[in-house]
## 1
Amino acid sequence: MALVWQKRAAGNLYQVRNHGASVRLFSNGVFHSQWNPRDPLKGSLWELLLLPAFFLPAGQIRSVLLLGVGGGALIRLLQTFVAPARIVGVDLDPVHLDVARRFFGVRDAELVCADAREFVASALAEGQPGSYDLVIDDLFGHAGGEVERSVAADRTWCRSLSGLLDDDGLLVSNFGSRRELLASAWRDSAVGAEFPHRWTAELPAYENCVLATSRRPLSRRQLVAEAPARINPGHASRRLDSRLRRLK
């Protein structure tokens, strides 16, 4: 891989590297994001976060809140395959947002440098309930060379996110493992009563477990009918070897 750019800031080493047509972001040696405009669907974790969007009918997702931008790969995927009218991306790290603009080509998205908890609290206080059709919680940091969630999915956090979601909307949350998801407040009986329709998605090469949940029924048949072939669990040419399961 060729080193394109690097920067030291706040005790962190950021690097952008090219691998063929792919651009990749590393922070302290941790691989954060990858985008290939020529071949965007390669079977990566970012596509696993994209996949649940196809539980909803085409055109229903008009407004997206992404908490945790990284290099912006998921924004590019959403713009390419879902085309919402509005994407708001929130990240605490200004370098990530700079990289998203300069090297990942993120345009036509509202990038906000802020603590996600403060952003969500402020949005709720300003009277913005039900503002988004899709909310994605991908808040991860790194410690000792390992990636870990930076905001605990406790009852307060889950209820805060649900307050920003449209009644017919979809919430997607990334966890470091299935065990971490099962220990979260999304399994709480009160939270589960509000969001009874839940699926999980996993990949063989990753420990991560992605939750997709909604107040409305989510149909695997709908997802298979809508998702692009390269990430479609029902298509023979898929590159994304995802395992979809209902979470009870």
## 2
Amino acid sequence: MTIEQLKGAIPEFAKDVRLNLSALTREDKLDEQQRFGLLLAAALATRNPRVAATMESEAATHLSTAARDAARSAASIMAMNNVYYRFLHLSSNKDYATLPARLRMNVMANPGVPKVDFELWSLAVSAINGCGSCIDSHEKVLREADVSIDVIQTAIRMAAIVQSVAIALEAADAAALWQPDAAA
């Protein structure tokens, strides 16, 4: 499935989502690798198979195997980190923060793509997953690397759009499954 086909699957009630999706591949604040790696990592973070498969397909035509693997790694490692560090942040018992995490995160030191790209993807996934600690950490690394706030905001906006596509499709699927006659 292509992004154009995915757009066609978005129902009329989510017209704004469809319009926002149209602009994603033309986003000029990110280079091609940043853009398509972010789309893939964000799509994986939505856990929506249709969105993920579409972005896998799109990424295959725009990214090297190493870049696709790095985007997948960003989604995977942040799935773990976002749960763990969100727990530390939200827990009123701060003793947990004094314990070693004991989580392997070697890919963050050598992701196979430029560090800025991997950090953008990790930030986008962290935003989807709602981990404030990880958002702060990745945003800080990006700012220290002189990434502009416009680029960072664009990455988050793109992640938000990808998430909204997944929700719109899931809402349409749920509505199709619900049969008012069956409830009577």
## 3
Amino acid sequence: MTHIRIHPTILLAFLFPLFGILTWEQTGWLWISAFFHEAAHIAAYRICGTKMERIVLLPFGICAGPQNPIRITPASEVFCAAAGPTANLLITVLLLALPVSVGNETVRYLLYCNGALFLVNGLPILPLDGGRMVYYGLATKYDAPFCERICYRCALILLILLLFPVCFTLFKEKNPSLAMIWGYLAVYTTIQRGSI
């Protein structure tokens, strides 16, 4: 049986509309985009023969945990990790193909949401999908300590490189969303040091 729970940080999702960073409608569209992202992960795990043990509702998305993750091969993990960003990329391409994509504000925002989910989740930093793809891609040939070292170093380099755009959006555009993501990834990287 799949357990569904709401993470306490879900309250952060309400801060963006309350402080005028996003509207309630934009927050809803972001949730819908995140739902398709996570639904693709769940479908990929089902294709690999694994059901979900838990689904956790987070501030801007959903996190699904598979049953018996040890039984999943590294190659299958790469496939499952790639499914979410791929779904967002496909939605982005489909929206770009619409003749109203430039003029319609909702379509433009959906383009932004799905493009951002694809780009951010594609970063090779754990626990993001890109980081999982790197880790499990390496795990097909190397042991866990080597995979952890590579992922940790990769995360440190990228976090340093991302510091300027994060500061720009925070101070110039008054948008804290990238800073929140960067802060979370920095804390995760510091604590986990490249381990899954």
## 4
Amino acid sequence: MTTLANRTAIVTGAGSGIGRAVALAYARAGANVVASDIDDRSGIETASLAGSNALFVRADAANADDHERLVRAAVERFGALHIACNNAGIGGEVNPVAEMTLEGWQRVIDINLSGVFYAMRAQIPRMLEAGGGSIVNIASIYGAAGAKNAAGYVAAKHGVVGLTKTAALEYGAHGIRVNAAGPSYTDTPMLNRLPEERRTSVAALHALGRIANAEEVAALVLWLSSDAAAFVTGSFYPVDGGYLAR
């Protein structure tokens, strides 16, 4: 069994979906969990489900000061920071490039890309103090492929993959591993907004003929966060049911 005993982990966007599944997987593996989300109710619920060694801290992924406050709260409560899963994100505006609003572009970049940069900028100094750590950034299959009408999302997720590789090169010698997970379509509240016929057609794009569940993505994140992946850094791992094999 994977163990994260005596380690403290932050999960952003932990109120639902992949973020909640990761937070609960970390808790089951014995970690102290700091769950963050912009939604107080869902974030508190995740922390409650994670157990007595869990804490909820409200944080906006697009706000650099919130990330600093989140990391301080983790260290003040549990003494150190060892693991982070930077998961918070949005789907963003759906429009062709020439029709995308400037506001729509900026919003998805602020949350999905700048939010990961702000997170690592706050997390890495504390991991250095702890003697090392592991960061898993949640990218997407669209960190390795294009998609019509999703320029902001695709650009942000490609950026997350590049940012991950850069941080891995910079901090590997200091004991910090940085990897990216690339989920395909996953059964989360974001996907549930799609009409049923669209969900069916999306499922058919996967070699396994179905979409993922959040726990399947969390299993990869848990492995990457643990000592079982001690020689893994700077990598992008699709968890996509064969979507990118086409």
